[in-house]
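Batch job 17 of 40 flagged for manual review because the log was empty.
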Amino acid sequence: MRTTVAAVLLAAAALTGCGTDPAPPPAYTVINQGERQLGLGTAGWADLLMPGATVAQAQDAIRTYGETIRGDATMYTIAVIHDTTATTHGKPATTYVCMGRWVKDEQASRTWADSSITSDTWPAIGMNCPDRRG
């Protein structure tokens, strides 16, 4: 009996030690970003270049970028794009894989998104991914 318990404990320890590592953050290049003071408050934008990105990868990149936002901005538009032909300085890409609207809090959701972005925790991101292929 002792051998069996020891073998089970060793096997459990081996499995625990071989756990899966968390997925690496998505690789993207920030090619266009900034902030601007507007009548409703400070808004920001970022275009993330990810050639060949899937919808899932684009959503991960938007969430990852959202975690880096600091400062006075209460809203950010974050677009994941395949190439640079669709960007205009200071404006989000016109064609994109996914676009996220990051809002700092519930007040920012009311101000910038007509309260369409809801969450139990803030900040939060509303996503729009017109290409649902993958």
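Reviewer: the log was empty due to a logging misconfiguration, but the result itself is present. The mean pLDDT is 82. Unflagging and moving on to job 18.
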